[in-house]
């Protein structure tokens, strides 16, 4: 069946360091991937997306890497700040107008 | 530009009751999707509507239903509530099909069934 998963449930980093959050997906036909950030008490917030015709996409302090060969997705956050503390979800475009979400990784930023 | 608005933010219901949740999408967005979020199951797709038509439904029992109005606002209904229905219900809107255009989420409705 369709599934998107995460390797690490919790990631703790020092403020100022770079963070890397990983995600594996199972559907090799997927052509669109998104990273969301969810803070406590809020809905998921779009961070960055990437289509399968790209390997890398950069935003402000964030970079998403896509490795289609091993069906792996990663989110890199540069100079992690306390405000980056949240749960991060990868999502995959599933069949028929839906997104399939991974289980989430909690990012904790130590001051 | 107003974001996705979900009402109410919090609800407490008793087992056996029914509940209706509302979602107002971003102006101009015609696609509305609903997700259930629980600690154990994560974000699970419920259904997606576009121009008042349900285009896809997730693996939830028939107690879960929804609809979309001509102004793109959407409601979901859960009948005969069970304790396991306690969850955060999230609505997302997008201009086009989710997964092809960016989907924006509301803050959710926290439903507690007692």
What does this entry look like structurally?
- Chain A is mainly beta and 111 residues long.
- Helix content of chain A is 0%, strand content 54%.
- In chain A, the strands form two sheets. In chain A, strands 2, 4, 5, 9, 10 and 11 form a six-stranded mixed β-sheet that branches. A five-stranded antiparallel β-sheet of chain A has the order 1-3-8-7-6, with no helix packed on it.
- In chain A, β4 and β5 form a beta hairpin.
- In chain B, 0% of the residues lie in helices and 53% in strands.
- Chain B has strands at residues 5-7, 10-13, 19-24, 31-38, 42-50, 53-57, 64-68, 74-78, 87-94, 104-105, 109-113.
- In chain B, strands 2, 4, 5, 6, 9, 10 and 11 form a seven-stranded mixed β-sheet that branches. A four-stranded antiparallel β-sheet of chain B has the order 1-3-8-7, with no helix packed on it.
- The termini of chain B are far apart.
- The mean pLDDT of chain B is 94.
- The chains are: A mainly beta (111), B mainly beta (114).
- The A-B interface holds A 32, 34, 36, 41-46, 49, 89, 91-94, 96-104 and B 4, 6, 31, 33, 35, 42-43, 45, 48, 50, 55-56, 58, 90, 92, 97-100, 102-108.
Which characteristics define this entry?
heterodimer, A: 111 residues, mainly beta, five-stranded antiparallel β-sheet, 0% helix, 54% strand, disordered N terminus, B: 114 residues, seven-stranded mixed β-sheet, four-stranded antiparallel β-sheet, 11 strands, 53% strand, globular
């Amino acid at each position: 069946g369709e599934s998107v998963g995460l390797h690490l449930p919790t990631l703790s980093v020092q403020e100022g360091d770079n963070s890397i959050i990983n995600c594996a997906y199972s559907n090799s036909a997927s052509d669109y991937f998104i990273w969301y950030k969810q803070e406590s008490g809020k809905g998921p917030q779009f961070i960055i997306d990437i289509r399968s015709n790209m390997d890398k996409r950069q935003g402000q302090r964030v970079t998403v890497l896509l490795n289609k060969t091993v069906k792996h997705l990663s989110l890199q956050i540069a100079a992690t700040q306390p405000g980056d503390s949240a749960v991060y979800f990868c999502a995959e475009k599933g069949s028929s107008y839906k997104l399939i979400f991974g289980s989430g990784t909690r990012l904790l930023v130590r001051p | 530009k107003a974001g996705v608005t979900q009402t109410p933010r919090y609800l407490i219901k008793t087992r056996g009751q029914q509940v209706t949740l509302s979602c107002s999408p971003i102006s101009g967005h015609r696609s509305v999707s609903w997700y259930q979020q629980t600690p154990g199951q994560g974000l699970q797709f419920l259904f997606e509507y576009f121009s008042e038509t349900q285009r896809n439904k997730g693996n939830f029992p028939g107690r879960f239903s929804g609809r979309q109005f001509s102004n793109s606002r959407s409601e979901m209904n859960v009948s005969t509530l069970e304790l396991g229905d306690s969850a955060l219900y999230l609505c997302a809107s997008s201009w086009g099909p989710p997964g092809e255009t960016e989907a924006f989420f509301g803050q959710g409705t926290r439903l507690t069934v007692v």
